[in-house]
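Please, structure for the following, as tokens.
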Amino acid sequence: MFGVVAGLAALARASHERAEAVMAFFAPALDWIQRWLPLFYVPSLIMLPLALRDIAGAAPWPAVSLHASAVRGRYAAVCKQAMRD
């Protein structure tokens, strides 16, 4: 990571146009990461409603779907523990 930042800084000092070209080349990947970051890297119970806001049909029900997922998870954990004992 430090090498990438140092390389871009050196490239920007040498040629600003080339640094802009490198950034434009990686822009689609950065956009993809920014879009899906809340689903994969940040705790989902905090960021999932923000990600669901852009999905048609899911916007009115994020709290209900999150609650249903939590209830199903709790039920599965209790059942698994009951089978163990």
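The radius of gyration is 21 Å. Residues 29 and 74 are 36 Å apart (CA to CA).
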